[in-house]
Amino acid sequence: MSNVSNAADDLCGNMSVGFDLESDLTPHRILTKNLIRHNDYKLLADAREAYGACGYAALPGFLEKPAVVTLTDELTRLREKAMRKDFSMPGYESPRNMAVLSGRQISRESPLIFSLYFHHAIRDMIAEITQSSVYSCSHEGEFLVANMLEQPGDTHGWHIDDPAFALVICLKSAPADAGGEVQFIPDWVDLCASHRRSPSENIDDLVTECHASGLVKTDQLEAGDAYLLNAGDNLHRVMPLTRSGVSRWVVNLGFQSVPYQTCQWQLKFPHFGQSKIPQF
């Protein structure tokens, strides 16, 4: 047993949930009943194969409609508490333009959304797809976040994460011609190592080469879809929204493959040093 105290576990232990049966029981039943297709063995088998091939597993229809409605209503209730972010991430020099609810905010304001992080079906599914142990994230800024792209130009630029696994659940999606697609480059950390490059600094020229070589993968989500990404090895971004009147809302759950805080890519290539990758 590890004695490591993880950020998500600490928040769970310290929060006062205080569920009111009349107001909270029905939504929780909806999520428990309609959360995920965790007993769809073909979906899991296909996801495991896809993840093994490129570190990305699409999970179409991950949420049934009642759960999408419930979670979207909950984020709508919290929307005014979100913080607007508009900056360029140092190192990557990639843009961040979106509204954000942090995991700490969510833990205080929404036990319903916060409970997703500890849902047994989610953790069991991630372990099954990745064929790995799954641990709570020990970085309080990384374990849970809601990202809301809502205006033209909003984007979550190129980056890799500290935790190994990112489960991204889509609650609102932009139309196919309006941006908001997820893009990723498989095995980015290995690629950078082969070029003797840092995976988190001055990346534009190598990303351009990957585009030209057809290495950049793109996927479009619908509300209720999700994906599981090897976010510690695969460079990824959300493409900018291209028109007004559309939005992309997601909840991102981050999990570690080891029971201690570290940058995932530094487990493989410690010679790059021990400084943390700058993270949003």
| Coarse shape | globular
Largest sheet: 12 strands, antiparallel
Sequence stretches where pLDDT stays below 50 over 5 or more residues = 1-5, 12-25, 269-280
Radius of gyration: 18 Å
Question: What share of residues are in beta strands?
Answer: 15-25%
The overall pLDDT, averaged over residues, is: 84
Query: Percent of residues in helical segments?
Result: 25-40%
Distance linking N and C termini: 31 Å
Number of distinct beta strands: 12
Number of continuous helical runs: 10
- What structural class should be given to the helix and strand makeup? alpha+beta
Topology as H/E string? Answer: HHHEHEEHHHEEEEEHHEEEEH
Q: Could you list some keywords that capture this structure?
A:
about 280 residues, alpha+beta, 10 helices, 12 strands, about 25% strand, globular, disordered N terminus, disordered C terminus
